[in-house]
Specification:
Blueprint lengths: L2 H27 L5 H25 L1
Helix pairs in contact: 1-2
Length: about 60
């Protein structure tokens, strides 16, 4: 896979995983009314999703 293709795959796949996990966590923990907790959770979740997808693609 070329470098550009890897970057596109990382952003696309991690974005899809992030959206699903974010909606599930916000609905489960009822975080709609807690802005800063939601912001911190989304930032951490985005970092984790990107790290996991990057690691998985580098192993291939």
């Amino acid at each position: 896979m070329s470098d550009t293709t890897k970057k596109i795959a990382i952003m696309g796949v991690s974005g899809l995983i992030f959206i699903v996990l974010d909606v599930a966590l916000v609905e489960y923990f009822k975080l709609r009314d807690h802005f800063w907790i939601n912001v911190v959770m989304m930032f951490g979740l985005a970092q984790l999703c990107t790290a996991f997808v990057t690691k998985a693609l580098c192993r291939r």
